[in-house]
Amino acid sequence: MSEFEPKIVGFFCNWCTFTAADLAGTSRLSYPHNIKIIRMMCSGMVDPKYVIKAFLNGADGVLIGGCWPGDCHYINGNLKARRRVAMLTEILKEYGIDEKRFWLRWIAASEGTMLREVVNEMTAKLKELGPSPLNRETPGKKTPGNETPEKVNPEKVKMIG
Amino acid sequence: MSERIGFYICHCGINIAYRVRVAEVAAYASTFPGVVVARDYLFMCSDPGQELIEKDIRNLDLTRVVVASCSPRMHEKTFRAACQRAGLNPYHAFHMVCVREHGSWVTENEDEATEKARVIVRAGLKRVSFQNALIPSQFSVNSNSLIVGGGIAGMQAAIDIASAGFKAYLVEKAPTVGGHMLQYDKAFPTLDCTACIGTPKMVAVGQDKNVELRSYAEVEHVSGFVGNFKVTINNKARYIKSNCTGCGDCAKVCPVDFPNEWDVNTKMRKAIYLSFPQAVPVRYVIDKRTTAPCRTACPAGTNVQGYVQMVKTGNYQQALNIIMERLPLPGVLGRVCPHPCEIDCRRAEVDSAVSIRDLKRFAADHARLEDVPMPMVEEIDKKIAVIGSGPVGLTVAYYLRRKGFKISMFESMEKPGGMLRTGIPDYRLPPSILDQEINHILSKGVELKTGMALGRDFTLASLKDQGFDAIFLGIGAHVPVKMNIENEDAEGVVDAVWFLRKENLERARSAKKRVVIIGGGNAAMDTARVAVRSGAESVSVVYRRTEKEMPADHEEIEGAKEEGIEFITLTGPKKVVTENGRVIGIECIKNELGPADAGGRRRPVPIAGSEYVIACDMIIPAIGQSVETAPVIKDTPFELTAWGTFKVDPDTMQTSVPGVFAAGDAVTGPATVVEAIAGGHKVVTAIERYLNQEMDLFDAERKQKEENSVPEEKNYVPIPEKAAIVARAKATFVEPLSRKSTFEEVDLGLSEAAAQSDAAKCLNCGGCCECKLCVDTCKAKAIDHDIKDQREIVDVGSIIIATGFDPLDPTPMTQYGYGRYANVFTNLEFERLSNATGPTLGKLLKRDLNDRMKFTEPPKSVAILHCIGSRDINYHEYCSRTCCMYALKYAHLLKDKCGHNTQVYNFYIDMRCFGKGYEEFYKKVQSEGVRMIRGKVGSIKEAKNGMLTVLAEDTLSGRMVEIEVDMAILCTAMEPRTNAQDVMRKFGIGIGADGFFQEEHPKLAPVSTPSSGVFLAGACQGPKDIPDTVAQAKGAAAECLALSAKGIVEVPPMISWIDPDVCVGCQVCIGLCPYSAIEFDDFNSISIVNSAVCKGCGSCAGHCPSGAAKVRHFTDQQVFAEIDGLLLN
Amino acid sequence: MANFTKLSFKKGELNQKLADLFKGMMEKGVVDALLAPMIQPKRGVMLTLVTDPSLVGAIDPFAPVVPVNGARIASSITGKPSGRKTAMVLRSCEIRALVELCKLKQAHLDDVLLIGMDCLGRYENLDFIKLRAEGQSSEAFIEKALAGNTESGGCDVSGACKICEFPVADNVDLRLCIIGTGSDALYIESLTPKGDKALETAGLGIGEAPAGREAAVQQLVKKRKDACDAAFAQYRESTPSVDALEDRLANCINCYNCRVACPVCYCKECVFVTDTFRHNGDQYMGWADTFGTLKMPTDTIFYHLTRMSHMSLFCVGCGQCTSACPNSIDLMPMFKAVAQKTQARFDYQAGRSHEEKQPLTVFENDELVEVTGQIK
Predict the structure, then answer these.
(1) How many Cβ pairs closer than 8 A exist between chain A and C?
(2) Distance from the Cα of residue C374 to its chain's centroid
(3) Can you tell me the mean pLDDT for B267-291?
(4) Do the chains contact at A69 and C365, CB–CB below 8 Å?
(5) Contact at 8 Å (CB) between B145 and B166?
(6) In the beta sheet, which residues pair with residue B609?
């Protein structure tokens, strides 16, 4: 049985953390594939219910990435995000969703290396913690994140016209 | 109709395909509900790639398109355009998935990369079906542009924009445009002089009617959005109007010198200056800082710095004129002022405070009162009665007279002067001086009536009857305070007030043999020293605390001791011992110091049983005076304070009786002369306003004071590190022995040399000293010292940031000894040497070892050190890109200007001659016999004779080399400006890892930033040489022109809106919106988004619990679908 | 300083006394209207709005029942104010909720004379009707409850009331006090100038506080606190995980009654009934594919967790959610336990004061650094 591969959903602000992810790419800084990024315009746009939804869908961790306080492209969206995260953490904790699974981090556009470190750190942490209590696909079923893809013959690709 | 989705995954050559099995992902996508075509292609962004999509849209009537390739920040626009060309609304139809930056480039093996691609592609496919058609809103573009920074980049951009017929605001924080390029001498590789190619640009931006030049100005605030920015510019006060001709007469008379920033401090400039001869605008500027501490410390607000500078330059008359602006009795104060100014003097941080008081006296003694100009004013037909001719009375009289009022001064004694005459002994203040200065005041048309006492010879009522419009009470405090001890009235007990008056006015010689003075203030010292002079054999001063607590001036205490006066401290009087009614001694009690009182001085506590008697035949209490109000209040009911002084409004100095003002000791109780004068000035303002019915001005001022109560931080001129230690000038004093017997003046004042050298110590904390000589000398009448900063708001459609770079300061790299060794130069200093307008007028000379501002002879050997702070992990990892080339230029210039046999050594790491003609230039310079040594210098050592030993490793031969040179030049790195962070925030742009501003894309968008409408030009985006800078500036200008020419701009439609049917009107979103883009509709009690202002940050949507507030293109459904896609099959 | 008016009454005359009081107030023009619990002609006791002084006879404020949290009623009356002076007789839980609704601009108290009443708890509506049928009077309940016994004929007051730490209402103009006042007297306490004026115009004198009150209130609060802590401990033990939460919510049918009954759920339309949650077939199938089986209706846990994120900061623990659930899910502890945590995180307490800003409506530059744990 291959080792547990946590599923991390990242909500990244377009101006800082998403750009940092691009930078990590152009600088070829490889990091665990476990994180999948959703592009947001600002961390202050992340509605708590997106996070809840992610966990209910079986995410093992959620990472919100925003600009450092003072650097927000929208002046202070990140500060609002921080309050919401604090509030939501309390709710999730109350029902056994460890706060170690729900991160908010400031990662500036220039901090590609920091992005990599954060993802490394979080992935490792989640591997320790094991699957989220809500990560429960039926056993044996192919599930995203840890399925081994079968090779496909390009001929099979649907072509019309 | 069900969705028909087309999916396309890009190989990006091999960038994606080398990790992601693209065909497999396409195959996976093809199985996805709604996907009718799934293809992989070598370069989706290429024309054929885009055509492929467009064809499919038409032939297969696709409704949605998902492209998996690079980051959407790169090609989202490209593919949206393709969809649009094929007739789809791009926001409805298109979504982009990033499988390169977030995929192939950051994963380590095919399986992981492919798997990650499958998952995020699935998310994209799920999301796209929930997207809605959006129409970008269009706004008109203001065709003006703002350019921040007047260096070559800014100037070029401004010229290009102007030449296209649009207006450019060019904001430069220095007094002149030009920037670093104009500080340089010649520009590599062509060696054309930068002035020759730069000054025409400067002139152009100065003259072009389309360029609004704002020099000596800074952008304070920016609001709005692309096409419609509002910019607040602060035009700092230059104090010179635009009609300045640049003739420079003002600088000739300006006494204040500072190092010139433009010449990187290799040369001095005046406080009123032009950065360099070709400066644009050709308009001088005055360097004013926070008002000097000496001036603020002076109760009367005398412009100390001003007259000190005048003494320095030997212009004693102007010094006196300046003093007379605030002090009507310069000679008096030059002698008796306790000089609080000297306490605050910052020179003390170097060695000792400037001897300000003595300088004042020197000026007074060496200039003519008659030549002090009176302002040209009309006689005003208003009569003012000034009662009392002490310092305060004289102040009120003189300055009101200067304003043209008619003044009558009433004095109860025979001669004017009040305490100055009766209280201060002649050896401190010769009567001749006092008379001379009082007569000067009277000579200006002040009528004096002596022997007229208020309450005895006249009353306020009688004055009113005589038609006086305002009355001033300056009757002082002449009534002795009693000791309240036994036998106080015995014969032989005389109070200091009476004793001094008798001695001063009549030379009574009334002192007995053994005199005891009670008290520790200046009055006590005066009394004691007068007692000595009037024949006493022994004089003792009895004081209840220790000498440290004595309020008297230090000089006075010392003077008294020199004259053999005995100090009996920690002792208090208990009773006067008498024998048949005459004093034979005083019984005293010893004290010890107890806890501090309210004033912070430790309270004396009597020691029980320590009583003892001091034999004496005269006792002179000098413990203070009070005001004699009785005769005054008997016919006018004035309100008094608890201390029996007149009660006045602290600002207007008006008493409880309207139209009657008071100040001086009569209000404050016994105080210093300068404090009295300070009060006098308040009265002058008040009476003038009173007579003009302008008293309400005071309320306005009070209000203003409350409003801006925050103390502004002080920007005094910094204290120079290498200031030489100069001993404090000492006045000469008459020998104690010879002076004890006479009333002749003791203090003989300073010699001219001493005065001037002491004045030269002044650091000019306030910058300009406001001697105003410049004002008189300016023929154009262009100088106005009262000009204030002026803020203006301009509307622009686009912005170019061209703020340039800072040169690295090598001082911290101690191994090179920069700052310590005279002949270690930075590149910029060397440029100034070589520049014809620099300190040496273009000659390359060594520095004098003892005087850094002096330059001696050409160097015979020079070491040029490359990469100082560049390519160095301890400073900057990046290469500054210009050093190699200007280093070669220096080598050439040295050979050229100092002779061919000058030895020049280049210590380099790698030569980077990448530009057009650069490599050729390298060859040329090498052929001139310049030594190139590949290796970084480890250290520089200076020998006694100033020779420098450079130690380095020659990495080619692998040997250490040690070379003696006369001069070393450090080729320092280009650094981001220190204020880059503020600029970043002000304009909403980003900063890269290297600290320079981040362009939107390193290759495809090198001049644009994440904030649309804001562009970058020049070294603020990264180290650049002149050609690259100019090229980028032209690029940025083109971006602005594109906006202006089109006239309309499309703003991305991803902004918020609030569903009116769902909004419940809680208005929380209004509080959260950073742009105040949400308004409340009272009638329907719902919140409404102003789409022109909203930037789509989603602060509202992120909170709104009912989901009424949404961000278009980031709706719950779209995000949920993406989340599902990432996590579900 | 004390500001009390004593209102003595003979057994069985409490409501009469109160009726006279309010009649007087309305006749003297202290207020134009009265909103208070009144005995209904058919059955039960409900908040009733009266504008005619002669019709206040049916008033019965201390009836141990709250069919609807009055904050909602107050909100509907003052949300768009009528401008008419209205006295509102409400309990602590109603007033605390009302305070939050005011912050959310859903209610306005400018024209309201807010009258709080000591609350000893409420029965579920049907239980109350049963007890009334059996002849239990409000006075009888008060007497029993003050003696510490609320159980009666197999019914007891709601779980929320048993652990409510706020038997006495704050942020009111007047207070009807029955705790520690002796069985034959009710005290009216005035807490604001508005209240003073009301008493004055109503011609009521001002006197000292009833001797025993302070202590009696403290004792009751203490009792409730302990009960609350115990209940939370027990609840957290029983519901430590999402698993347990799902178990607790096993029978939730997305009827949203809990939301309708919640006084601080103020949205016009809940996001969970908007299109956002109208999924299409593919989505249902997708979930089924992933999880093997998919319990319908979906989004129940999602709904409750999201609701917590929306209202837990305002939750006053009135327990209307529990009362409203058709499947007898005891929701109150679920929300109140979370509320305790979220409110504590921001040192906030729903309904404590009009001045405290709701935590998600404000923010500081340097705060909550522990959230990211990063220092630049």
Answers:
(1) 107
(2) 41
(3) 95
(4) yes
(5) yes
(6) none
CB B243 within 8 A of CB B196: no
Q: Give the sheet arrangement for strand A102-106, strand by strand.
A: A35-40, A8-13, A61-66, A102-106
Task: Please judge whether A45 and B1097 are an interchain contact, meaning their C-beta atoms are less than 8 angstroms apart.
Answer: yes
ipTM entry:
0.93
Can you give the C-alpha Rg of chain A in angstroms?
Answer: 17
Q: Is C253 helix (H, G, I), strand (E, B) or coil?
A: coil
Flag whether residue B1115 sits within 8 Å of chain C, measured between CB atoms: yes
Task: Outline where C147-297 has alpha helix (H).
Answer: 159-162, 193-201, 213-238, 242-248, 257-261, 281-291
Backbone angles phi, psi at A151, to 5 degrees: -70, 140
- How many angstroms separate the CA atoms of B363 and B330, rounded? 8
Nearest to B1066 among C105, C283, C362 (CB): C105
B50-77 per-position pLDDT tens digit = 999 999 999 999 999 999 999 998 899 9
Question: Would an 8 Å CB–CB cutoff place B200 in contact with chain C?
Answer: no
Do A49 and C292 count as a contact with CB atoms less than 8 A apart? no
The amino acid present at B133, given as its one-letter code, is A
- CB-based contact, A131 to chain B, within 8 Å: no
Q: How far is A134 from chain C (nearest CA, A)?
A: 8
pTM of structure: 0.75
Among residues C298, C250, C207, C270, the alpha carbon closest in space to that of C7 is found at C207
DSSP per-residue codes, B263-300: GTTSSEEESEE-SSTT-SS---EE-B-SPPHHHHHSTT
Interface residue B1099 vs chain A (CB under 8 A): yes
User: What is d(CA B164, CA B144) in angstroms, rounded to the nearest whole number?
Assistant: 11
SS3 state of residue A118: helix
Residue C344 φ then ψ, to 5°: -65, -35
Quick one: tokens of C9?
A: 């009454």
Q: Are B995 and B976 in contact (CB under 8 A)?
A: yes
Q: Which pLDDT belongs to residue B508?
A: 83
B117, B443, C355 from B495: Cα distances, Å: 103, 35, 66
Provide CB contacts within 8 A for B462, sequence distance 6+: none
**Average pLDDT of chain B?**
93
Give the lowest-confidence range in B370-374, B464-468, B702-706, C168-172.
B702-706
* CB pair distance less than 8 Å for A14 and B73: yes
Report the phi/psi class of residue C180: left, alpha or beta, with left for phi > 0 and alpha for psi in -120 to 50. left
The whole-number average pLDDT for the span C85-102 is: 97
Q: Mutation test of the interface with chain A: which of C232, C242, C334, C365, choosing the one with the most A Cβ atoms within 10 A?
A: C242
Residues of C in Cβ contact (< 8 Å) with B1071: 361-362
Closest chain C residue to B1073, measured at CA: C361
pLDDT band at B1015 (very low <50, low <70, confident <90, very high): very high
In angstroms, the CA C351 to CA C103 distance is: 10
Model confidence pLDDT, tens digit, residues B960-998: 999 999 999 999 999 999 999 889 888 888 888 788 998
CB contact under 8 A, C242 and A133: yes
- Contacts of B245 by beta carbon, 8 Å cutoff, 6+ apart: B282, B779, B780, B782
Q: Tell me whether residues B1105 and C275 touch, CB distance under 8 A.
A: no
- Main-chain dihedrals φ then ψ at residue B514, nearest 5 degrees: -110, 110
- Out of B1067, B1085, B1106, closest to residue C270 by CB: B1106
CB contacts < 8 A, A to B, total 199
Residue among B1072, B1106, B1116 whose CB faces C267 most closely? B1106
Q: What is the predicted pLDDT for the residue at C265?
A: 96
What is the average per-residue pLDDT within C256-267? 96
Q: What is the pLDDT of residues A47-85, one digit of tens each?
A: 999 999 999 999 999 999 999 988 888 889 999 999 999
The backbone torsions φ and ψ at residue A86, rounded to the nearest 5 degrees and listed phi first, read: -60, -45
